[in-house]
Design a protein that fits this description.
The structure is a single chain. The protein is of the alpha/beta class and about 850 residues long. Strands 20, 21, 22, 23, 24, 25, 26 and 27 form an eight-stranded mixed beta sheet that branches. β7 and β8 form a beta hairpin.
């Protein structure tokens, strides 16, 4: 029986083998016939032959470039990828896959930053693992920036070897590399007291702990020219290294220890466990990066290299009161090195003797960080601070609780290094020339610098702030249409800004003043709505759509609902953002409310320092005690800018101010009332859900009682519009709530909405864009939302807002004011959402 079974198996095997041989012969015959047919086809077609010849030439040229090591880099440079690792054999293999992916994508230099130095201890194991995945011997590795080690059978790495073979260099760096000179340079940016307080039991991590503590005070430090100077002076093998990608082991917060100015971007991507990283996941990261990043070598973000130290830039206009405008701009007097040095000596001479030594040390240690290369920086990286390692959940609750845990700003110094006082010694002037015809300036207005400023550190003719690693330029603010009389209504104003004492002026700019009058006499007027803009390619698209329409459809001014530059403590991004938006902010009025990204919490500087110094808003004119909330009137519209991150309960100053402000509005002369804040009160998106709920419970009834027509917010990076709503229920007399946080920032869109869609939600779409409200007359306004992916004049959402006389009596007060309760509807929806 076993013998028969064995014979049967042999027969079956023979049959399958014979079938395989037969199929192979069939394929070879078919292949030969196909080749003959294809050859006959291409030989009879000169066009096909030419195409194939060009393809072959291109392929040979590409192969030659790869052999010479001149493979073009990716179109943009990926910043830092954050991974979690247990430093085991499985992670070694995963790291090899990651390096193979980077080499395939054309990266030339990779930095593996491991603060504890575990990778350096496992270097030999890593090299052994790389041999299995790098058969082409194109990945070479060295440690501590010393080019002595190699992997994959290659020789010692050198500039010549790297260029000739096209090898990708991999550097290992940790806080244990105590001799690494750039770590010492970074440490200089921290304050003496912070460094003294920071310590560690393990000497290897002492430098890392210091930098982590100091990272709350320090931003990225240098521009490309300065990088080359520092690296060339540091050491031979270190000179010229500028990694294309950094892999951070641990968390984003540990990023504080590696040389931040060696990376070309501040973008971070947390991809989870290293063992789970795949080429597909990294491709997704790269696609996301390319889709959200603004190229920092973009000329729109750079300062003109030919501009002098006192040349104005970052010009923007805001309302200052009836018939008046505030024009603001920035200059860089610290680039006038001779004048700055003279001013520094004058400043020191005025100090007490015992203060001089300490002040000299502070100024000299930060001097290199603050001079002329900074404003021209095209290379952006950031020492990690608490904001860089953000998760949506952490970010949401940290900012929602901010108003409860505000520190005493008076205890923190906006100029700890004293650099602004040095600038003050330079006797700068701020002035605006303006007129109603091109080139014919009939008025010269100087700054009185102080009417709308809360700061006791306002200098003679400008404003300023500094950290231990950044000195702002001189921030100039001049009000026109006040001392010389109101600006003419509905008139083109031609102006230029500058310093008369140095005869330095900007090029001529122009804007149009709004109409004035009661009711319909001041209308129509078109108001643009923008939020959460940032400075990415999507941001640029939003701006282009905003102004790319025909002349009759262009907006007259812009209401910005917060989250402007996404600097997040890295101060030069305020300057690049100012340059990006200057063509728009210098030709029309932009009015702002603060977002969570304007808080920029610090242990030494006041909250909202950059925001409050750079933007002069009319809060005192509107009776407010804080620039975080204010109001203004324009062309029959009363606009209220509320502060989501200032106290807002019924005992707060903001609440009392809001009631008083609304009660003062004459709804016959000013028929429309629009309110704005950053964190939305009505939001059905997963992200930031409920962030504005406490403020809504406190203030919603006040807006409802006084007939507010629409409420605009941002914060959520998606679009949503509500029906008329009050207390989570549809109400034809309630305001329409608009979430417009889709301006284009680097954090990307929030795609996930809760289902089913609430009854009060009329439209929602996770797309980038902006909105426009066209106030046609005193009873009708047309609202439109535009998506960036559509044509500039294509409308994605539209509705007509009509003021219903049944809802209002006595100049706008409601017949019956409802009291906002503790939102049982909200609580019900909140319980349901977890099971959706």
């Amino acid at each position: 029986m076993p013998q028969r079974a064995s014979n049967a198996a042999k027969r079956v095997a023979y049959v399958f083998l014979s079938l395989a041989v037969y199929l192979r012969e069939c394929w070879l015959r078919f292949k030969g016939t196909l080749q003959e047919t294809w050859h006959a086809c291409i030989t009879s077609s000169p066009g096909i032959q030419a195409v194939l010849s060009r393809c072959a030439s291109s392929f040979r040229a590409g192969r030659a470039r790869r052999q010479r090591g001149t493979v073009p880099r990716p179109p943009t440079i990926l910043g830092a990828v954050v991974v979690q690792s247990s430093f085991g054999q499985q992670d070694d293999q995963a790291l090899c896959r990651l390096l193979a992916w980077a080499q395939l994508k054309g990266f030339h230099q990779v930095l593996l930053y491991d603060p504890a130095g575990e990778i350096q201890l496992r270097k030999e194991e890593l090299i052994e693992s790389l041999k299995w995945v790098d058969s082409s011997k194109k990945i070479q590795i060295w440690s501590g920036w010393e080019r002595e080690s190699s992997c994959c059978g290659g020789g010692g790495i050198s500039e010549e070897n790297n260029e000739n073979t096209g090898a990708m260099g991999v550097a290992l760096l940790s806080a244990a590399d105590a001799e690494e000179p750039l770590l010492k340079a970074a440490a200089k940016g921290t304050s003496t007291s912070t460094q003294a307080a920071a310590g560690a039991a393990d000497p290897r991590l002492n430098k890392e702990r210091k930098l982590q503590e100091g990272s709350r005070l320090v931003e990225a430090i240098a521009a490309p020219d300065d990088i080359k100077t520092r690296l060339a002076a540091a050491s031979g093998p270190l000179a010229g290294i500028e990694p294309d990608i950094v892999v951070v082991f641990g968390s984003a917060f540990t990023l504080a220890g590696f040389p931040p100015w060696a990376v070309r971007t501040a973008e971070l991507f947390e991809v989870g466990a290293l063992a789970a990283v795949t080429s597909g996941k990294m491709d997704a990261v790269l696609r996301r990066y390319l889709g959200t990043r603004q190229r920092f070598d973009d000329t729109r973000l750079r300062r003109n290299d030919d501009a002098g130290a006192h040349a104005p830039e970052q010009v923007h206009i805001s309302f200052a009161g009836p018939g008046a405008m505030t024009i603001s701009w920035v200059t860089w007097p610290q680039e006038d090195e001779d004048a700055y040095e003279y001013a520094r000596k004058s400043y020191l001479a005025n100090l007490e003797i015992e203060e001089q030594e300490e002040t000299i040390a502070v100024l000299s240690s930060s001097r290199k960080l603050q001079l002329k290369n900074w404003p021209r920086s095209t290379s952006f990286a950031s020492l990690a601070n608490g904001d860089l390692s953000r998760h949506h959940h952490h970010r949401r609750h940290r900012h929602r609780r901010h108003h409860r845990h505000r520190r005493e700003d008076s205890e923190r110094d906006p100029d700890p290094a004293g650099n602004c006082h040095v600038l003050d010694q330079m006797k700068l002037e701020s002035a605006v020339q303006w007129g109603t015809a091109p080139g014919n300036y009939t008025h010269l207005v100087y700054s009185d610098n102080g009417d709308e400023s809360d700061s006791i550190d306002t200098y003679n003719n400008f404003d300023c702030y500094s950290t231990t690693a950044y000195l702002s330029g001189a921030l100039h603010h001049v009000v026109i249409g006040e001392k010389e009389g109101p600006l003419p209504a509905a008139t083109a104003i031609y102006y230029r800004v500058g310093d008369p004492s140095r005869d330095t002026w900007s090029e001529e700019k122009t804007f149009t003043t709004p109409p004035r009058g009661n009711g319909d006499r001041s209308l129509p007027y078109r108001l643009g709505l923008v939020g959460d803009l940032g400075q990415t390619e999507h941001s640029s698209s939003t701006l282009e759509h905003l102004v790319g329409v025909s002349e009759e459809k262009k907006v007259d001014s812009v209401l910005f609902v917060g989250d402007l530059s996404y600097a997040d403590g890295y101060q030069p991004r305020w300057d690049t953002w100012g340059r990006l938006v200057e063509p728009y902010t210098s030709s029309m009025v932009w009015m702002y409310t603060q977002g969570n990204h304007e808080i920029e919490p610090s242990n030494v500087a006041p909250d909202f320092l950059s925001y409050s110094k750079r933007f002069r808003l009319p809060h005192k004119h509107s009776g407010s005690s804080s620039n975080l909330y204010y109001s203004y009137e324009i062309a029959g519209i009363h606009v209220i800018m509320l502060g989501s991150y200032a106290p807002f309960d019924e005992s707060s100053d903001q609440y009392a101010w809001l009631r008083k402000d609304l009660e003062s509005v004459d709804r016959i002369a000013t028929p429309w009332v629009i309110a704005s804040m950053h964190a939305p009160w009505y939001n059905s998106n997963h992200n930031h859900y409920g962030d504005g709920e406490e403020m809504r419970i406190s203030m919603e009834s006040v807006l409802y009682e006084h007939g507010v027509d629409a409420v605009v917010a941002g914060h959520v990076h998606a679009y949503e519009r509500s029906q008329g709503v009050f207390n989570n229920e549809n109400d034809p007399c309630g305001p329409h709530y608009i979430n417009i946080g889709d301006g284009g920032n680097r954090e990307g869109l929030d795609f996930d909405y809760y289902k089913p869609q609430p009854e009060w939600s009329a439209m929602r779409d996770p797309s980038y864009g902006h909105a426009v409200i066209d106030f046609v007359n005193s009873t009708t306004a047309v609202y439109q939302w535009h998506r960036n992916q559509d044509g500039v004049e294509e409308v994605a959402d539209e509705f007509v807002l009509t003021r219903d006389p049944k809802c209002r009596v006595n100049g706008g007060l409601r017949l019956q004011a409802k009291k906002t309760k503790g939102s049982s509807t909200y609580k019900k929806f909140s319980r349901q959402r977890h099971s959706i």
